[in-house]
Amino acid sequence: MAETLTSDEKFNYNPQSREAQIRAREYTSAQLQAINRETWAGVGFLVSRSIDDGIPTREAAKMIQQGLGLNRPQAAALLKYRAGLSPLLSASVRDRVIRAYIQKQIRIRAMMIARTTVLDGLNQGMMTSWQQAQQQGYLGKKTEKRWRTNVDACSICRPLNNKTAPLNGYFKFSLPSRFSQPIKHPTAHPNCRCSIEVVT
After folding, report:
1. Residues 106, 70: contact at Cβ < 8 Å?
2. DSSP of 41-60, one letter per residue?
3. What is the DSSP-derived secondary structure letter of residue 30?
4. In what order do the strands lie in the sheet with 144-148?
């Protein structure tokens, strides 16, 4: 019967160890490159839509400058928010409420990035640590990993709860969505709070 391997004399994963931190940093660096691409996609979207919608150059420039850090869906939401503002607002009030909206969205995205990349990095560091333990004989060749969700897990991750996969294998999503690609460990999507554990 499979048992969860926790800290014991055989093997102990320490996320503060130098090796785990190096692996987590390397993995997180790759994730941040993807975040940077999303940010540029947001800027590109604001530029093209500003031209298409005939937004005055000065106002468009302010939105783009203040909106650096928004992803494409947030940029689209910003334009929708702007379009819904009363035409009776003065230019200064309009500018102020748009700026406040942008700042709120950037805070939301910053928190999401921090939460997701930290968990991503920890899970990748743990995976690397388990793989090294397997190579050194501390973990058997048939060792697996198990997906763990929170009580309030989303519909994307809920079907994965307690699912197992080979240590070097992939978890497969049962939902037909853009998250259907197999992955090796959480996080599965932005703001994912799932974790993995090793079973022997």
Report:
1. yes
2. HHHHHHHHHHHHTT--HHHH
3. H
4. 164-166, 144-148, 195-199
Instruction: Give the span between the Cα atoms of 108 and 48, in whole angstroms.
Output: 24
Q: What is the DSSP letter of 17?
A: S
pLDDT by 10s per residue, the chain, length 200: 343 444 344 555 555 666 656 666 666 676 677 778 888 888 888 888 888 888 888 888 888 888 888 888 999 999 999 999 999 999 899 999 999 999 999 999 888 888 888 888 788 888 888 888 888 888 888 899 999 998 888 888 888 899 999 998 988 876 655 556 778 888 888 888 888 988 87
Structure tokens belonging to residue 139: 């973990």
Whole-angstrom Cα distance, residue 163 to residue 2? Answer: 13
Collapsed DSSP state (helix, strand, coil) of residue 14: coil
Please measure the distance between the N-terminal and C-terminal CA atoms of the chain and give it in whole angstroms: 8
DSSP 158-179: GGGTT-EEETTS-B---S-STT
* Residue type, position 153, single letter: A
Q: Is 4 exposed, middle or buried (0-12, 13-18, 19+ CB in 10 A)?
A: exposed
Q: State the CB neighbour count (10 A cutoff) for residue 167.
A: 22
Cα angle, residue 43 at apex, residues 50 and 46 outer, rounded to 5°? 20
